[in-house]
UniProtKB/TrEMBL annotation:
The active site is at residue 181. It comes from Pannonibacter tanglangensis. This is 3-methyl-2-oxobutanoate hydroxymethyltransferase. Keywords: Cytoplasm, Magnesium, Metal-binding, Pantothenate biosynthesis, Transferase. InterPro entries: Pantoate_hydroxy_MeTrfase, Pyrv/PenolPyrv_kinase-like_dom, Pyrv_kinase-like_dom_sf. Belongs to the PanB family. It comes from the Bacteria. Its EC number is 2.1.2.11.
């Protein structure tokens, strides 16, 4: 079997070749990501990307477990991290441990991710001391959208010190890495230089120790909105639209199914086409 990436291996990559991370929510997409990524994140972005929710606030532990199990089946080598959804960890370290343990036990992920800095440090310490590696997430933390009043850049000007303190606190508490979302480039550079664990940027800086994107964003499959930090590497949404339109046209014109797609009486005909 292929040796898989572990949280300590990720932590040792500080300052090295950038860590490559993408989200995944399904087995086949996870299998593609696994061939190229160091880390695969089952993000609570799944709620917006695949379930049509208006924010990540309605995502449940059950949704994360279902998608976590699906992704696990597609992953052989990358480190699998599953997001803790809103309301499953903020109350107490004990609540966080109980729910993180379910994610680990039921999905087979090796680590969990949760949002928050100074406020969540005690919880991060509680989990890491009890065998659950934690990836932290500071800067724009989407589960706090109502407190922020929108998905705004965080840490501009003097507010930068707050994000620095958050990043320091999660590193000190034992997180093996930290996602830095939607903060100024210079701030992300400074935090990357000052904290001892790898920073994984999204809308942050090329100087981070790694990068993460939501896979449906970079594939052009999620198009409801497009943050500035998303680089589109494909336009699968357009391809899918054109394919569905062509199918509809074929069906209405009785051009599909064609001779290739229907069965004769011969016993020798296989019903499967090799890929
Ligand atoms: O939910 C998610 O996809 C995330 C990443 C964008 C970091 O938290
Ligand atoms: Na998330």
């Amino acid at each position: 079997s292929v040796k898989s990436v572990t949280p300590p291996m990720v932590e040792r990559r500080k300052g090295g070749t950038p860590l490559v991370c993408l989200t995944a929510y399904t087995t086949p997409v996870a299998a593609i990501a696994d061939r190229h990524c160091d880390i695969i994140l089952v993000g609570d972005s799944v709620g917006m990307v695949l379930h049509g929710l208006p924010s990540t606030l309605g995502v449940t532990l059950e949704m994360m477990i279902l998608h976590g199990k699906a992704v696990r089946r597609g992953v052989e080598k990358a480190l699998l991290v599953v997001d803790m959804p809103f309301g499953t960890y903020e109350e107490s370290p004990e609540q966080a441990f109980r729910n993180a343990a379910r994610l680990v036990a039921e999905t087979g992920c090796a680590a969990v991710k949760l949002e928050g800095g100074v406020t969540m440090a005690e919880t991060i310490r509680f989990l890491t001391r009890r065998g659950i590696p934690v990836m932290a997430h500071v800067g724009l933390t989407p589960q706090a959208v109502n407190s922020f009043g929108g998905y705004k850049v965080q840490g501009r000007g003097e507010d930068g010190e707050r994000i620095v303190a958050d990043a320091r606190a999660v590193a000190e508490a034992g997180a093996f890495s930290v996602v830095l979302e939607k903060v100024p480039d210079a701030l992300a550079r400074r935090i990357t230089a000052e904290v001892p664990i790898p920073t994984i940027g999204i809308g942050a800086s090329a100087a981070c120790d790694g990068q993460v994107l939501v896979i449906d964003d970079m594939l052009g499959m999620f198009t409801a909105f497009r943050p500035k930090f998303v680089k589109r590497y494909a336009e699968l949404g357009h391809s899918a639209e054109a394919a569905v339109a062509a199918y509809a046209e074929d069906v209405r014109a009785r051009a599909f199914p064609a001779a290739d797609h229907v069965f004769g009486d011969g016993a020798d005909m296989s019903s499967l086409i090799t890929p």
